[in-house]
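FORM 12-B: Structure-to-Sequence Request
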């Protein structure tokens, strides 16, 4: 059994930086509800589960006024978080078809009629894809076949949307932000590879071929220079390699997994030995990436543990991304990796 001293925060009643009033996933109540429920289960302390439920009740009080539809701060992330909790068995006696009915309708209309200019998880098409995939895999008693069909339809439409955005576009691998967006897209798109199969495979195989070429060139280079204005560039390249491995795992491509593992190991060695690559000013982004890598490459778990101590020195805010929630989940994953199950999506969201 994990003790409260193995994770952070050690008690829901200890003084913490105030939780932001936003209801969203990354910096609001939904994300911290996930943290509290996970701690409550894995240290067998019902007070954490109670505080998680209190946070969700606050979300319920304001969700009707939320206009943001994004995964990072809006309805897609809130809905994804609630569905994730239910599917993990953490939120009992909850019918998400009922609870998320209005969210389904709003995001369905956005999928049909909205215009998206980005594939990003946080604010673009991949965020909606993540929501509808999570809803499509729900297992509510008496679930309507029609509801499943329109979740399926939304996934198919969003895959087409990604294909349209990618058509004729070059891969701007010189931009660190693009590396993160591409990684998130590959991880989530590969999870729905049996829907809209031809289009999905075309997108994935093209993205994987470009990613493999980029990472191989990066790893074969004798020395890598600093990237002006982007101290996280190589960290995001490591994140892309981890998402490449997840894409291989989701689709059963052992070669993708093997290549990605080699690239991760090489980049980690470079990050340790070449200071020019290691100039990140965001310790929490490093923690999220190292925690993700530790899930897919367990031999690297010590990196996440070291990074937790660095983050604790910053007086973190009480939120999931960039705060105490990320530290808590990372510590829990390090203390008992056999308990983590499929937590990769949480660390991906925090990058």
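FORM 12-B RESPONSE
SEQUENCE OUT:
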């Amino acid at each position: 059994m994990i003790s409260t001293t193995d994770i952070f925060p050690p008690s829901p009643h200890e003084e913490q930086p105030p939780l932001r009033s936003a209801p969203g996933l990354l910096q609001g109540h939904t994300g911290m509800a996930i943290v509290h429920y996970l701690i409550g289960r894995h240290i067998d302390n019902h007070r954490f589960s109670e505080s998680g439920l209190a946070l969700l009740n606050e979300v319920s009080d304001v969700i009707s006024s939320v206009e943001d539809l994004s995964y990072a701060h809006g309805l897609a992330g809130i809905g994804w978080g609630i569905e994730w909790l239910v599917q993990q068995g953490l939120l009992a006696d909850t019918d998400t078809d009922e609870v998320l009915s209005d969210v389904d309708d709003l995001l369905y209309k956005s999928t049909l009629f909205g215009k998206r200019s980005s594939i990003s998880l946080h604010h673009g098409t991949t965020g909606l894809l993540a929501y509808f995939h999570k809803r499509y895999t729900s297992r509510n008693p008496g679930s309507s076949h029609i509801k499943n069909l329109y979740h399926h339809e939304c996934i198919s439409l969003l895959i087409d949307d990604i294909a349209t955005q990618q058509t004729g576009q070059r891969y701007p691998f010189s931009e660190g932000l693009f590396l993160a967006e591409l990684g998130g897209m590959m991880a989530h798109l590969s999870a729905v590879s049996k829907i809209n199969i031809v289009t999905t495979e075309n997108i994935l195989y093209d993205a994987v071929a470009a990613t493999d070429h980029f990472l191989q060139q990066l790893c074969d280079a004798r020395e890598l220079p600093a990237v002006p204005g982007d101290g996280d560039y190589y960290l995001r390249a490591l994140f892309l390699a981890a998402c490449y491995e997840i894409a291989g795992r989701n689709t059963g491509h052992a070669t993708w997994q093997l290549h990605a593992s080699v690239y991760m190991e090489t980049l980690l060695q470079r990050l340790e030995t070449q200071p020019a690559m290691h100039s990140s000013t965001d310790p929490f982004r490093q923690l999220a990436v190292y925690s993700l890598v530790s899930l897919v490459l367990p031999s690297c778990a010590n990196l996440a543990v070291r990074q937790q101590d660095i983050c604790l020195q910053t007086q973190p805010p009480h939120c999931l991304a960039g705060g105490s929630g990320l530290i808590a989940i990372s510590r829990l994953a390090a203390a008992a990796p056999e308990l983590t199950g499929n937590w990769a999506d949480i660390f991906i969201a925090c990058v």
